[in-house]
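[Solved] Which block belongs to which protein?

Original post:
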Amino acid sequence: MKEASELLEQLNDRSREVFRRVVEGYLDSGEPVGSRTLTRSLSEKVSAATIRNVMQDLEYLGLLDSPHVSAGRVPTQLGLRMFVDGLLEVRELDQSDRVKIDATMGSNTNDVGGLLDQVSSALSGVTQGASLVLTPKHEAALKHIEFVSLSRDRALVVIVFADGHVENRLFAPPPGQTPSSMREAANFLNALIEGKTLSELRTTMVQEIAKRRQELDTLAADLVESGIAAWETGSENPGRLIVRGRANLLGDTGAADEELERIRQLFDDLERKQDIAEFLQLTDESEGVRIFIGSENKLFSLSGSSLVVSPYMNADRKIIGAVGVIGPTRLNYGRIVPIVDYTAQLVGKLIADRT
C-alpha cells in the first residue's frame, strides 16, 4: 500500500478537486457524495459520467469507497489520512470558541485538577465531541513514604510531598510481605527521599538497591521495586484521565448499533484507565497537534473514531500532559485542530503560572 503523500502526488488537478469535494461533503453531512452533487460544485464544468470515472479511479487507489452499489462515495481511512495530511485547510480559531475556552479557564483556583476538569468540560461543550485531558503527575519533592498492608494481596502506599500534597495509591505487593518488611522498605526509601521527586527517587532507588541488596531483606527489596513501579508505570494511576462528553457520541441516533457498541467499549476501556500512559506517548514525536484516524492508534482503534490530540508543557518545555477530542472519523478537522492546539497552549501556560 502506497503512502498517502505518494498517492496525492499522483493525482491531477481534476482528480484532486473531486477527491477534496467528496471528503468535504462527507465530513459536512456524514452521507456518501454522488457525482450529480459534484457537478454543481466543481470549478470546471464536466459531466456526471466524467466525475463517476474519476471517482472509480480514486476508489481503485483505495481513497474512496462505495457503501452501496448505486450510492455515492465516502473516503476510506487512507483517503482521510491523505486529506488531513495534504489538503486540509485549518482555519483560524473561531472567536466564539476562543471566548468559551477562555471563560472556563478564567478561574483563580490553584487546584490544577479542578482546572483541568473545567477544561475538559469546556472542550467537550465547544466541540460537541468527547474530550480527553491527561493530567500531569505530581512532581514536587517528596517528604515521606509509608506502606500500609490492607490484605494479603493489597497494600496502600501513602506519599507525602514537601508542598503538602498527599497521595494514596493501591498496589499488589509481592507475596509474603510482613509488617516488618514493609517498615524496612519505607525506612529505606525515606532515607533517600530528601529533595527528590518520584522520578528521581526511582533512579536513585535502582542504584541503591544494586549497592545495598545484601543489606536488605529480600522481601523488602521486592516491595520497594513493586511499589515504585506502581507509581511510575503501573496501571493503577500513571496519570489521571478526564473524560467528558461521552453522551455526545452515545447519543448519536444516526449511528449504527454496532458503532455505538464499539464506542461504549472505548469508554469502558478509558474509564478502566487502560493504556493511559500510551495516550501521552502519542504526543512525544512532535510538539504540535496530531491526528489519529481509526486503527492508526491502537488505544482508540476499536471505536472506528478519530483522535485530535496535543501535548501541553510546563515552564521547562517538558511534556507533562495532553488534551484531545475524540469523535467520528467525519470530525470537522479544520475547526477541531485549532481548538485543541489553543487549549493545549493555554493549559500549559496556566499550569506554569500556578507552579
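(Second protein starts here: sequence line, then its C-alpha cells.)
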Amino acid sequence: MIKNDPIGAAINDYLQGKKNGSITVASNLTEDDIIPVDYLFRQEEEMPELETIALQECRGHVLDVGAGAGCHSLLLQEHGLKVTALDISEGAVEAMRKRGVENVLLADVLTLKDQKYDTLLMLMNGIGIVGDLFGLYRFLVHAKTILNPGGQILLESSDILYMYEQEDGSVLLDLNAGYYGEVEYNMRYKTHESGMFKWLFIDAGLLEQYAEEHGFSMEVLYEGENGNYLAKLVLQE
C-alpha cells in the first residue's frame, strides 16, 4: 500500500475485518471532520435520497468518478447497467476489484481518452475533485470529449456560503481570497496522509453559468437542507 493513500488503506483495512476505522479530514475552513470507514460501504437502503435519485437517473455506459469502495458501481452493476469505476487511489481500485466491480480504472478523469460514456456520476460532492473554478472550466472542456452526444453529468455539490455567516446574520468574505467555495483539505488515516489538496464547492447558480458556457443545460434534481444539491448537466447536441 502506498504511503499517501488514506482512503485506500482505510477501505482495505475494512475488508480485512477492521470495521471501526475512521478517516480524519482537516480543512483550512472549519474543524476536522471524521468519516467512519463503514460509510463508504453503505448498502442501497442506507443511501441518502440524493444518491438514490442520482442512481435512478443513470443511463447507458456510466463512469463512476471517484468511486471509492465501489458502493454505487456495484449497485448500478446489479441493476444491469454497464459501469466503469474510476479512482486515483491504488488501494480503492484494488478493493473494488476484490468486491466484484467488473470494470475498474486507476486514473485521473482528465487523462481519459478513446472511450465514450453516457453518464459521468460524481457523488459525495464529487465535482470537488476539480479543485477550483479554473479546474471546473478544464473539466467541462474535457468532459465533452468523453461523453456521447446527449451525454450527462450527474454531480453533487454544496453552497457553503452559510459557513461564512456571522452571529448577526451577515456574511463575512475575504474578497481577495478568490471564490468562497474553494477549500483546501488534508486527509489522514493511521500513518497515511494525503497532503493538502484543493476541493471545490460551487453554488448552483454559478455552476449553471459554467455549464451553459460549455454547451450543457442544467437542472437541479434535488436540494438538501444543508446547501447540498444534485445537478444534471446534459450535453446539448
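Accepted answer:
You had them paired correctly. Confirming on the second one: The radius of gyration is 18 Å.
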